[in-house]
Amino acid sequence: MSIDIHTHIIPAELPDFSKQFGYGEFITLHHHLPNKAWMMQGDKKFREIDINCWDVSVRLEEMDKFKIDIQVISTIPVMFSYWAKHEDGLVVSRFLNDHIAEIINQYPKKFVGLATVPMQDVSLAIKELERCKTLGFKGVQIGSNVNQKNLTEQEFGEFFAACESLDMALFIHPWQMMGQEYISKYWLPWLVGMPAETARAIANMIFSGVFDKHPNLRVCFAHGGGSFIPTIGRIEHGWECRPDLVAIDNPNNPRNYLGKFWVDSHTCDKKLLKYIIDEIGVDKVVQGSDYPFPLGEAVPGELVRTANNLSEKEKHIILDEAPRKWLKLE
Hints:
Blueprint (H helix, E strand, L loop, with lengths): L2 E6 L8 H5 L5 E7 L2 E6 L2 E7 L5 H11 L3 E5 L11 H21 L4 E5 L6 H13 L4 E5 L10 H13 L2 E5 L14 H20 L2 H4 L5 E3 L10 H10 L1 H4 L15 E3 L5 H11 L4 E2 L15 H4 L6 H16 L3
Parallel strand pairs: 1-5, 5-6, 6-7, 7-8, 8-9, 9-10, 10-11
Antiparallel strand pairs: 2-3, 3-4
Helix pairs in contact: 3-4, 4-5
């Protein structure tokens, strides 16, 4: 069994939320060619996507081709819309979640759903999280920050507690990368900004004590945990030499938290994947491809399957056992 926990999906048609709400640059789709569409952010082209981003039949064909038995589907992070007015953010989230709910209910053996919620209002986010639990979702995807608020903010503690009590897995995906307006050339927000953004989220959750306050919270970070695990030596050294700056909310060594959260396998590098396994344990690494985008795996699961520095048992854990434990699948 192969389970891919990191895949994105979008409805084939989106309402014109900007017109509906009277403001903003909400994403719309412009189907300009057969099997292709532009994601439009107002009048600007954000990203060109292919039919496999919205057509479930094509997705199922490619899953069969790539030998992926189950996809965990979540929205595209740009759809989070955390900048929107609170109630409008809830409307967008509900629309996207209803679309995913239809798919997971139609194909319960092929798809697992991760919800999206309006994190700009934690009470509304929890309300939508509870609704999605009743719809059969196994978890929720949130951004690495909320309008540049770190996940250490006290208000988010209520949301983490809700995920814990509802037994919903939490997938944290980078978005709105720090300083991206200064590094737009060379696609650097996606190449170096995203790994740094994920490290930002992990460090904030560790140093603020989130994992101690919520020991049963099942968190997975995208893209192999970004740049956090490769720089754990520097982070630990900072904790040792300047505890007055680093250990102000949590006295524990940050290295002690390796193995207390999951990361996906999308490292684009077999040596790095093995290093991460050595640091956090193979049982905390789950197959993730970032399908169906070009920066994701061209063939989902290929990095793990062809890694000759991994044993067959390790591959089985990454592709099957670890995703089941993170999502609590039967």
